Amino acid sequence: MKKSLILLFMMASMLSATNYTVMLKWNEFEGDCVGKLIGSINNKNAYVSGDHKEVKLGNKLQSFGENMGDSAEQKFVVNSDSGYFTFWVYDKFVDQDMNSDSNQLSASNPKVEIYKNNELIKNITIPKKKGLVAKIFSLDAANNSIQIYNDFYPKSRIFVGQIVNATNNLPLENVSIKLTNSIKDDFNILSNKDGKFLFVPEIGKYKITLTKNGFITYSTFVKMNPDETPQEFHFALAPKIDKIRIVLTWNHTPYDLDAHLRGPKPEGGNFHIWYRHKTLIGGKNFLDIDDQNGWGPETITIYKPAKGKYSYYVHNYSNKEIWNSSALSYSNANVSVYKDKRLVKTFSVPVNKIGTVWHVFDIDDSKNIIPVNSFEFTTNEENIH
Questions:
Q1: What pLDDT does residue 279 have?
Q2: What is the pLDDT of residue 95?
Q3: Least crowded by CB within 10 Å, which of 118, 208, 225, 284?
Q4: What pLDDT, on the 0 to 100 scale, is given for residue 282?
Q5: What is the CATH number of domain 242-385?
Q6: What is the pLDDT of residue 185?
């Protein structure tokens, strides 16, 4: 009896879940396309490819394969009320040497239709751009939020990035970039005049180290996942300084993340600094730079330290009214803390979290950095604490 009730409950839950259908269509006489839908639900990740039938994440992520009729098309389904999904379109021969035409994907005129419970809610005409891989949109199933990207890349299995100055967002040329794989092979490249770089990795994890005279050396880990989607990075190098400097970077979206710092004033009392409240502390503006167009950096420097507790937060201003948004959690936000001319701590935003405020860390009276990593929601940034 109990088993029957559990089975009925599971069936009812599946039937009540929101159903999203994604249709990819293109002109088969001009090119060959492949769609790829990547999903993350409750810390479980998977992807399905449109050129064959696949079922992943307990039937919540599906590909129905390719239909070649009057126009070529591939069908995908998300059957879930939670999770974060991204949709990509590839030229079928993107990573083969035979394909050197960067206009090939656009020439096939790909289009994407998104249906919610069989009702058309979004029609995306992919623009004419150079590149053989395109990130089309993301879906936050918990709140039915769709973000359009249409970002193009030259290949699928690549690291692309830009390196800027953390205090003014200007590109940094000739940054020494060393990538070290799991078997300790080193690969060395330089950033160009726009601070940009490109590297073609194998699947796996790499340590990346950025070095430039006058700046604090920065190291972190990057990964090429089995889904072989392009990985894009934005690094902000901090000029050498003895003070405590906190640097926030993130992905293309959400467009506007805000850094918040609460702490003691040297003359007494407390402050709360963010982009709308650039209070001078001891005659200095602690907020060095604010960004509202994605990537960052947002940089705060504690120029006049005082005795007492400091607390640092990241607020998703772009989605501040959506209580169940997970966009901040999937923003790839990274916080770097510098002190005494060196990198002392890094924080990567936890995934699969709901909330618009990430309480990253505190600094105690002894200037120790205490990780917090909690999430909450507020509609009023003045109340962040």
A1: 84
A2: 72
A3: 118
A4: 85
A5: 2.60.60.30
A6: 97
**φ/ψ of residue 156, rounded to 5:** -90, -50
Amino acid at 276: R
Say how far apart CA 337 and CA 341 lie, in whole Å. Answer: 10
Backbone region of residue 328 per phi and psi (left: phi > 0; alpha: psi in -120 to 50; beta: other values): alpha
Q: What pLDDT digit, counting tens, does each position of 202-231 carry?
A: 999 999 999 999 999 999 999 999 999 999
- State the Cα–Cα distance between residues 58 and 42, nearest whole angstrom: 12
Provide the pLDDT for residue 29.
86
pLDDT recorded at residue 360: 98
CATH fold of 16-153 reads: Lipoxygenase-1 (2.60.60)
Instruction: Report domain extents, the chain.
Output: 16-153, 157-240, 242-385
Instruction: Classify the C-alpha dihedral 349-352-353-355 as positive or negative.
Output: positive
DSSP 96-124: STT---TTHHHHT--EEEEEETTEEEEEE
Strand partners, 357: 315, 376
pTM above 0.70, yes or no: yes
Nearest residue to 378 via CA among 258, 281, 203, 265:
258
Assess whether the region 16-153 and the region 242-385 belong to the same CATH fold. yes
Both structure tokens of 56:
């992943």
Task: Tell me phi and psi for residue 125, to 5 degrees.
Answer: -95, 115
Alpha carbons 311 and 329: distance in angstroms, whole number? 19
What residues of the chain score a pLDDT lower than 50?
1-15
Contacts (Cβ under 8 Å, ≥6 apart) of 120: 113, 114
pLDDT at residue 17 in the model: 81
Give the chain's largest Cα–Cα span: 74
101: left (phi over 0), alpha (psi -120 to 50) or beta: beta
3-state SS, residue 8: helix
What is the pLDDT at residue 110?
95
157-240 CATH fold = Immunoglobulin-like (2.60.40)
pLDDT confidence of residue 93: 85
Contacts of residues 204-211 at CB distance under 8 Å and 24 or more positions apart, as own/partner, are 205/181, 206/159, 206/179, 206/180, 206/181, 207/179, 207/180, 208/177, 208/178, 208/179, 208/180, 209/177, 209/178, 209/180, 210/163, 210/175, 210/176, 210/177, 210/235, 210/237, 211/175, 211/176, 211/178
